Amino acid sequence: MSDSTRNATVTRYSEADVPTEYGTLRMIVYRQAGTDHEHVAIVAGTVSGKSDVLVRVHSECLTGEVLHSLKCDCREQLDLALRRIVEAGEGAVLYLRQEGRGIGLGNKIKAYALQSQGYDTVDANRALGFEDDLRRYDVAARMLEDLGIESVRLMTNNPSKVEALRADGVNVAGRVEHLVEPHAHNRGYLESKKARMGHVYDLTRFSIAPGRAAAPFDLFPRRKFAR
Question: What element of type H or E holds 86?
Fold first, then answer.
């Protein structure tokens, strides 16, 4: 998790209004000093000077968001966050370039190979010599400062993320549950995050038949938004 002794420097590099299926959103790109990382703030409405702004701090997931892997819930969480900030009239999604809870794409695929042998998401990382979660949030803190957001209502199921952001100086006014319906391919992953990483949610509200085969084109029909 975040180390409050680290203090990233980010620079607002470019921005534009971009039409999306959710509506027109402001995309602001930040460059992180000393790295080749470009992070993005996706903003709905006016957030500068505002308190209790609905915010999602979201880490990149190429496998889920681009390739539509069913092993995680990242794509659905990103979709939900974007819909929520548009429906609220204002808010921000901070998209951070830290794939695989910070271990990178190649090591994430190595972890997937171990998971196919029976390791869960935590033990796979440990078997590769990594901590459970290497993500850092000082970048997000600096982005929120630049956006002028006074305090946030954080869309997350992870209390540790709340604590890490607070340690990096973010005024987190509250946590908003951010749960999407699980399916047969990712339920074990979600159960592991709850049992071993302290995520807070109740999966028993969802009924999934054991061993049910997931049909990607039926599970997540493309949503259209008229805005």
Answer: helix 74-88
Q: Is the dihedral of CA 160, 163, 166, 172 positive or negative?
A: positive
Question: What contacts 55, CB < 8 A, 6 or more positions away?
Answer: 91, 92, 93, 94, 144, 149, 152, 153, 154, 155
Q: Catalytic amino acids?
A: 133, 135
Please give the Cα distance from 141 to 136 (Å, whole number): 10
Q: Which residue segments constitute the domains of the chain, with CATH numbers given?
A: 10-98+135-205 (3.40.50.10990)
**For 39-89, how does the pLDDT look when each residue is reduced to its tens digit (9 = 90+)?**
999 999 999 999 999 999 999 999 999 999 898 888 999 999 999 999 999
3-state secondary structure of 226: coil
147 vs 164: CA distance, rounded Å:
19
Q: Which amino acid is at 35?
A: T
- Give dist(CA 77, CA 55) in Å, integer: 12
